[in-house]
Amino acid sequence: MLRLARYLKHFKLHVSLGPACKLIEAIFELIVPLVMADIIDNGIATGDENIIWQGGLKLIIFAVCGLSFTLVCQYLASVASQGVGTLLRRDLYAHINTLSYREIDRLGTPALVTRIANDVNQVQTAVAMLIRLVIRAPFLVIGATVMAMTIDLKLSLIFFGCMIAIVAIMYPIMVITVKLFKRQQKSLDGISRITRENLSGVRVVRAFSRQEYEKQRFEETAEEYRKFALKAGRINALLNPAIFVVVNVAYLLIVYFGGSMVSVDGLTQGQVIALVNYMTQISLALVVVANLVTIFTKAAASSQRINEVFDTKPSVVGADSIPETDENAPAVEFRDVSFSYLDGEDAEKSLENVTFSLGKGEVLGIIGGTGSGKSTLVNLLARFYDATQGSVLINGADVKSFPDKELRRIIGIVPQKTELLSGTIRENMTMGRADITDERIYAALETAQAKEFTDNLEDGLDARILQGGKNFSGGQKQRLAIARAIAQSPEILILDDSSSALDYATDAALRKALRKLSMTCVIVSQRANSIRHADKIIVLDDGMVEGIGTHAQLLRECEVYREICLTQYTEQELLEQEKEG
In this structure, which topology does domain 332-580 adopt according to CATH? Predict the structure, then answer.
């Protein structure tokens, strides 16, 4: 938690003034037993009503002043804790956005959501308690003990024994519960993951009638979370009873020895009552400390999880300045590129020794079976991952030498899984560039064959898109995603199997429209028809390049490509296409 204490520097006044107010309130509370002793010994015992009234007035003043200082402290604690939570979430979210795909894959999206929400809440609560109670509770314990020593030194030894016994109880409980709370939070990650999968994939779950299975899977994970919570709760529940047992024994000792000393050592009845009150203050303060132990134990576990995210450094970092490029160099070039999603020399490679180049304005088609490495290749080009070996170049410069913003300006990508964000069509179209005009949007929609249905929408570009684009069909979503990439006017456009939901006529119209654009295109597709007119086609099989060439060349020279085409064309059609090529 100490590493996250840097966020308190933004609230120095709150962190210093808040505990000071609580300290003053605690001083008033420590004076109360002395006033009570004076009322009993000098007012009630002698029948002096003036002392009784004066003492009562003092108690009222102390109560009002204490309440006032408490309210100020509560306000300062609320402002500081909410502020720290806001800043921490902001920085955590910003850091997560700097991570590359590799780090996000390792940490997991549900775990990141839990950390930015639940774990930050735990830290936020700890900050509030830090300002409100961390100084007050120990001060009351120490102050009450000191005040007891001023009344009677011998009886104050009971206070010391009480505190030593309570610390001996609290420490092992705290050590055990920290580990349990960490495992509990990890189980919460699992609940978040299953919930997210079920809500985003609710159509699939219902289509296969898997509601009961998913319900059982959720219940098993929730049961695991419950077990850790109960185990931690049972151990933590020992704190308060154990403290009260120690405190009640201390009460008995004070009353027993104090009562015998009233007539022997000159101890007054009021002083005995004051000692009992101080022990009551200590008991209440220690109960607060016990609760603080629980709060800070949870916060410590959450802080470790948050710091784990902050300690995760992005493996893909953009350069500081734009590199020099060569106008005569290929738009895209791969030089002996290999890649593995896992670390280590023995890790299986998703791509191996890929080498090719693509001229400016040319169209590259990439085809291959499932898992052949098609999406991996374009992810390396867009630098979502860095190549394990070899170099990926754009306009003669290594992709690693480009700043992130410049690389995103050069490359427009439509991912394999279409993602539209909630908002309007215009807001989705202008994601990458704030200066995109409506004219550019309409031109992009027309190229992507989306204008035909967007023109029929009542609100036009201001039509709402629900979360994930659920109010549009699969083909409409793909066309909107393609239009969004085209609207950015990139030099290189990557379509990662992004026309799979389009009918053949729309797909053909899209390819024809893309040909009119002066940009380099990389098209990944399972359909041979979608890439047959490309200037160059790469055939991938199990991460290896099996052939590079035109459609006609590959039909003659690449057996893998021919086998793929035979699943989509007849032998006679392929013979005709060879002749045409």
Answer: Rossmann fold (3.40.50)
